[in-house]
Each structure stands twice: as C-alpha cells, then as structure tokens.
Amino acid sequence: MESYDPQLLDWILKNLDIRHPEMTRRDIEMWRRLQKNDERRFYTHALLGFVRRRHRDRRQENFSKAELEEFIGEFLLKLDFAVSGRNVVTLPLFDIVGRRALAGFGLLPTILSH
Questions:
Q1: Is the pLDDT score of 39 beyond 50?
Q2: What is the distance of C-alpha 112 from the center of its chain?
Q3: Average pLDDT over the chain, rounded to whole?
C-alpha cells in the first residue's frame, strides 16, 4: 500500500479548491521537491486530490485511465504555470479543465486540443 505524507495529505484536503495562482512559493516547492525525490508518491498525492475533489463535488467513484491521464497532464501544466507565475487565467489545481478550454485560453497549441 502506498504511504501518504501526512503534511501533504493535510494540505491537499484543505486545498481541494485551490487555483494555481493561489499556491505559495512554499506550496510549489513542496510539490516540486516531491516530484524530484519520489515521482510515484508525487503522482499518487496529485491523483488523491483529484479523486477526493471529484468524489466531494460529483460523488464520482469510478475513473477511466484516460480521465486520470488527462488530469495528470493538466496538473503538471498547472504546476508549471504556478512556478512561472503565468496567471492570465486561474485554473483549479485538482480538477480537469479540458484540452479545448486550455487551447481556447491560448494555453495549448490548437492541435493538442482535439
């Protein structure tokens, strides 16, 4: 069974609605450090936030592989936006916005939105 970092788990549960520009430098460093030191736990914690938010908001309990992969791709993108301070539009960290929406905001090349 995967072990969770209690501090990060607490942060996730308190921040299910956080948007990428709201992340503090400390928050960003915490996620980047985990990504660098333990990629598996990084993805596990990110997915935990997504699953918890979806369960809370939509009572969703089943997730397709494609849905989880799309979330992870967006999570990485949003984390990069938080690092770079790119705040033209604010995006929910633990939810899926969708490729078309991201492309519509000019955040993805149009070819990737299909």
A1: yes
A2: 19
A3: 90
